[in-house]
Design brief:
The protein is α+β, with helices and mostly antiparallel strands. 41% of the residues lie in helices and 21% in strands. The longest helix is centred in the C-terminal third of the chain and has 25 residues, at 277-301. The chain binds alpha-D-galactopyranose.
C-alpha cells in the first residue's frame, strides 16, 4: 500500500475536491462533469461478527473516497487515481473476467455490476479516484471506493438504483469480483451511518437503526499503526473459514441456528471440546463478542458510556488472545490509550493484522491525547502514529 496516501486524511474535503478537479483536467484534458463522495467507516463493537450474522456498531467517517467523472461518446472506461501511479483503460464490451491484484479491481467489480444492468445505456467514462482516507488501514477504503463508484455510475447511467441496491452492488463487487469473503458491515456502514449516531446493524437480516452517540460528550479518535499486511486478505478469509467450521460442528447441537451468532454461550461451552483448538478460540470470540455487543447497545441506550467503553476494551483482548488478529503496534496503542484519563475504551478496528485502533474518549479529555499517544508509541517503535479525531458523515452523495 502507498505510504503517501496516509497523510491525505488530514486534508478537508473542500480543499481536496478543488485539487482533484484540477488533476482530472490535467489528466483527461477537460474538467469533470460530476464529482461524488462516499465516506469510510470505523467499527466500535461487533468485531468479526458480520460474516457470522451478528450485530455490529460502526459509524461513518468524515473522510472517504472522491470520484470525479466525465462521460465519453464511446464505450471506453479510463480509470486513474490521485493516490496510485498509472492509468488503466477497459472496454465495456470486453470487461475483465477476474481481478488483477490492483486497486482498480474494486471499481472494475462495480462497473461489471452496473454495466450489466445498464446494457447499451452505459456510456464510456473517464474516472479519477482519490480522497482523504488512509488505504488498507481498516477504515474500509475498499467499501468506500465501491459505494462511491456504484453511486457515480448509477447517476450517470440512469440505472435508478435505490440506496440499498447501491450498497448491495458494492458488496457483490467485493465478494464476487475481488474475492474477499467479507460480511455486509462495510458497505452498509458507508451507505447508511449518520452523524452523531452509531449504526446498529443486524448482519443476519441487514436490518438497522441509528443509536445516538452525543458528539458533545465523546469523541472518536483513530490511531494508525502504519502497518500494512499484504497477507491480510488471505488471513481474513482464513478466519471466515474457521468460523464456518465452528458453526458446522456446533449446528447439530443448536436446533434452528442458521449462523454462529445463533449459537448460545451455553451450547458453546458444552460442545467446545469437539472443535480443533484454533477453531474453538475463534468460535469463543464470536459468541462472547455477540454478548458484549448486546451489553454495549444497552449501555449506549442507558447513556452509560463507561460500560460501553469497557466492552470495546474487552473486545480488543479477545481479538488479540482468541482471534489472533492483533499485532504489537495495535496492542501498544490500545494499552497506552487506556492509561489516559478520560479514555473510555480502545480496540483495534477493521480486520486487524495492522491498520488502526479506535479510541472512544470524553470530549474534555481530548487536549494533549494525540501527543501523549504519539510519544508512547514512538518510545517503542521509533515513529509516531497518525492520530485523527473523526466526525461523522451524512453518507454517499454528489458534491456540488
Ligand atoms: C473487515 C471486513 C468486514 C469485517 C471486519 C471485521 O474490515 O471487511 O466485513 O468482517 O473486517 O469486523
Amino acid at each position: 500500500m502507498k505510504e503517501g496516501s496516509q497523510n491525505a486524511s488530514r486534508l478537508p474535503l473542500a480543499d481536496l475536491v478543488g485539487a482533484h478537479e484540477r488533476e482530472f483536467r490535467a489528466r483527461f484534458g477537460a474538467g469533470p462533469s460530476r464529482v461524488f463522495f462516499a465516506p469510510g467507516r470505523v467499527n466500535l463493537m461487533g468485531a468479526h461478527l458480520d460474516y457470522n450474522g451478528g450485530p455490529v456498531m460502526p459509524t461513518a467517517l468524515h473522510a472517504g473516497t472522491v470520484v470525479a467523472l466525465r462521460p465519453r461518446a464511446d464505450r471506453t472506461v479510463r480509470l486513474a487515481s490521485t493516490l496510485e501511479p498509472g492509468e488503466h483503460e477497459i472496454e465495456l464490451d470486453a470487461l475483465p473476467l477476474g481481478p488483477i491484484s490492483s486497486w482498480i479491481d474494486y471499481p472494475v467489480g462495480v462497473i461489471r455490476e452496473l454495466a450489466t444492468l445498464a446494457g447499451r445505456e452505459a456510456s464510456g467514462i473517464d474516472l479519477l479516484f482519490g480522497g482523504n482516507l488512509p488505504i488498507g488501514a481498516g477504515l474500509s477504503s475498499s467499501a468506500s471506493i465501491c459505494v462511491a463508484t456504484a453511486l457515480a455510475l448509477d447517476r450517470t447511467w440512469g440505472t435508478q438504483l435505490t440506496d440499498r441496491d447501491i450498497v448491495e452492488a458494492a458488496l457483490s463487487a467485493e465478494r464476487g469480483f475481488v474475492g474477499v469473503q467479507c460480511g455486509i458491515m462495510d458497505p452498509y456502514a458507508v451507505g447508511f451511518a449518520r452523524p452523531g449516531h452509531l449504526l446498529w446493524l443486524d448482519c443476519k437480516d441487514a436490518s438497522f437503526e441509528h443509536l445516538p452517540l452525543d458528539p458533545d460528550q465523546v469523541v472518536i479518535a483513530v490511531a494508525d499503526t502504519g502497518v500494512r499486511r499484504n497477507l491480510a486478505q488471505g488471513a481474513f478469509n482464513q478466519r471466515v473459514e474457521e468460523c464456518q467450521r465452528a458453526f458446522s460442528a456446533l449446528a447439530p447441537h443448536a436446533p434452528g441456528a442458521t449462523c454462529l451468532r445463533d449459537v448460545t454461550i451455553e451450547v458453546f461451552d458444552a460442545y467446545e471440546h469437539e472443535l480443533p483448538a484454533d477453531v474453538a478460540r475463534r468460535g469463543r470470540h464470536v459468541v462472547e463478542e455477540v454478548a458484549r455487543t448486546r451489553v454495549a447497545r444497552r449501555a449506549l441506550l442507558d447513556h452509560d458510556l463507561a460500560v460501553f467503553g469497557e466492552q470495546m476494551s474487552a473486545a480488543h483482548r479477545s481479538l488479540a488472545d482468541l482471534f489472533d488478529v492483533s499485532v504489537p503496534e495495535l496492542d501498544c496503542l490500545v494499552d497506552a490509550s487506556l492509561s489516559w484519563e478520560g479514555v473510555l475504551g480502545a480496540r483495534l478496528t477493521g480486520a486487524g493484522f495492522g491498520g488502526c485502533a479506535v479510541i472512544l474518549l470524553r470530549s474534555d479529555a481530548r487536549d494533549g491525547f494525540e501527543s501523549y499517544l504519539a510519544r508512547s508509541f514512538e518510545a517503542t517503535f521509533g515513529r509516531a502514529p497518525e492520530v485523527t479525531f473523526f466526525e461523522g458523515d451524512p453518507g454517499p452523495r454528489e458534491l456540488s
